[in-house]
Amino acid sequence: MKKLLSTLCAMLMLASVAGAQGWFRQPTPNDTLRSTVILPNNDVVFQIYAPQAEKVAVMGDLPWDKPAVFRKEENGVWKGRMAGLTDGVYRYRFMVDGVTVYDPKAPNASETSALLTIAPKGDEFFAMKNVPHGAVAERYYWSETLGQLRRLHVWTPAGYEKSADTLPVLYLVHGGGDTDNSWPGVGAAGLILDNLMAEGKMKPMVVVMPNGSIEVPGGDMTAEVPLFARDMVKSIIPFIEDNYRVYTDQANRAMAGLSMGGMETLETTLNNPEMFSHVWVLSASFAPGNKEVYEYERVRLKKEADRYNKNFKQLVFTQGGPSDIAYNNCKETLKLFDDAGIKY
């Protein structure tokens, strides 16, 4: 498991800056915009932030005889209302000055992005190779915490279906603004894991990639963290252990997360150290700039230091150099671990 996490770090660090960009820019109305609002009478309000646009329309599997008429508001948001859609599922896209734009605020917006893979030699750690390939499954579970169906992805190694072996499990969480599709998609996690297995650099295990993004009022990313931590313990882990042949003991359960996912990893494992033996926090820290959170964590770490040292077989923090957008926040977080005498 240590070798697997070490290799995954190479990929994680490449993504760390992109994953955290949203925290360090000028806020816009787009940050909290809902692109589609379904009214009680089934009228739908479509919205898109395009302050420089001259004309906006919406196209797709929508009634052509009742087009939405868009008007731009002072804040740069275009709004158009379509009357009385019947129950069903509709494909749609915006047309902005004649250019097709897939809804950037849709819950699955990241999954409509085209993927560009540059692998000139074909032997890169993320390349598609002629090796035995495992399976990446899309699964749905009921979240007791959120009261809704949620999706996650699960990688199982080649031969898992015919095997009767029980395997260790790694929970791997994406960065802010992404979804559970990000690791097997742009993260190439399935290919990386297949290659590691074929090269004998890891033992068979199940890798679970849950959705760490949760819609919260005001779009406060840090408010998602405790919700996800509760969902992990109450619903995600029980779902995996009920449906996959995995060990259910601490020694065979690990968690890793990038950026916001690293914050969620900290929240989950520090509240439940008896559940995890290996913890990797990648380009992440406690809530950046929140003095109250840091003071709470300072007190908690000192109080629980012996408990963490006893339970975590491996606790790792990793990040890029000073150019990593999480660099200074992570340094401040590590000072708290140092002061508490926690081994990492």
Protein model, in words:
The chain has 344 residues and is an alpha/beta fold. The chain contains six helices and 14 strands. The strands form three sheets. Strands 8-9-11-10-12-13-14 form a seven-stranded mixed sheet, sandwiched between helices. A hairpin with a 4-residue loop joins β8 (135-143) and β9 (148-156). The two termini are 16 Å apart. The model is unreliable at 15-23 (pLDDT under 50).
List keywords for this structure.
single chain; 344 residues; Rossmann fold; Immunoglobulin-like; 2 domains; four-stranded antiparallel sheet; 6 helices; 14 strands; globular
Rg, Å, rounded: 22 Å
The neighbouring-strand order within the major sheet is 8-9-11-10-12-13-14
Mean pLDDT: 89
Distance between the termini: 16 Å
Q: Which architecture of the largest domain does the CATH hierarchy give at level 2? A: 3-Layer(aba) Sandwich
Q: How many structurally independent domains?
A: 2
CATH superfamily of the largest domain: Alpha/Beta hydrolase fold, catalytic domain
For the record, the CATH class of the largest domain is Alpha Beta
Number of strands: 14
The H/E string reads: HEEEEEEEEEEHEHEHEHEH
Number of helices: 6
Please bin the fraction of helical residues: 25-40%
- What spatial form do the alpha-carbon principal axes imply? globular
Return the CATH topology of the largest domain: Rossmann fold
